Amino acid sequence: MKCKYCRARLPDNANYCEFCGGRLNDNTSTDIKNESTNAVANDFQNRDFYMTIDDVFMITGRGTVITGIIEQGEISVGDFVEISMGNKAIRAKVEGIEVFKNSNLTTAKAGDEYAGGSRHVGLLLSKVKRTEVCCGQIVRKIKK
Fold this sequence. Notes:
By secondary structure, this protein is mainly beta. It has 2 domains: 1-46, no CATH class; 48-142, Translation factors (Elongation Factor Tu (Ef-tu), domain 3). Helices cover 10% and strands 41% of the residues. The protein contains 2 helices and 9 strands; from the N terminus they run ααβββββββββ. The chain has helices spanning 30-33, 35-45, and strands at residues 50-59, 63-72, 74-76, 80-85, 88-99, 102-105, 107-109, 120-125, 138-142. Strands 1-2-8-5-4-9 form a 6-stranded antiparallel beta barrel. The protein has a two-stranded antiparallel sheet with strand order 3-7. A hairpin with a 2-residue loop joins strand 5 (88-99) and strand 6 (102-105).
């Protein structure tokens, strides 16, 4: 089951989203529900690099890839990122940057368009399990 407000993956019996605070069985307005999400997002947007995860998948023999559109900043191979959702955070190193039909990138930045006009970027992360990350989480660059 996914949250209807921030698309984070949730247990089937969840009544609210731990990430955005949205109540799943409540009829109050979306603006109120997304208040905490917007506060978290605004905090991350004030940083150097900001991306929200759209999809997560595993490449056998390589590792976990997270995809999304870079909202702000620039990321390079070798940079360290923190993936946050609520009070939890996972730290990882970017081992590779991939876009459609091009896996030889060393950097990617907000606003870049790649093959076919796509802005989606995949970040190959080291030592991260696919089950540790999910859609809707926020990625930001950190200093080691």
